[in-house]
Amino acid sequence: MPSATRSNPHSFAARPVGYSVVALVLLLFTGLKPEAQTSTTPPADRGASQTDELRELREAVRDLQVQVTELKRELHHQHGTEGEASAPNPALAGATPANLAPQAAGENSQTKQQGTGLGIDFLRQSTIEVGLDVYYGYNFNNPIGRVNLLRAYDVSSNAFSLNQASLILKHDPDPAAGRRFGGRLDLQFGQATETLQGSGANEPRPEVYRPVFQVYGTYVFPAGKGLTLDVGKFASSLGFENNYSKDQLNYSRSYWFNFLPFYHMGARANYKFNDAIAVNYWAVNGTQQTEPFNGFKDQFFGLTLQPHKTVNWTLNYYLGQEHPDVVFFPNGGAPPNSPTEQGLPFQPITNAPNGRLHIFDSYVSWQSTPKLTFVLEGDYVIERLLEESSPSRVTGGAAYGRYQISPKTAFAIRGEYLNDHGGLFSAKTQALKEFTLTYDYKLAAGLLVRTEFRRDFSNLPFFLTDRLGILSDHQNTATMALIWWWGNKEETW
Question: At the top level of CATH, which class does the domain 125-487 belong to?
Answer without folding.
Answer: mainly beta
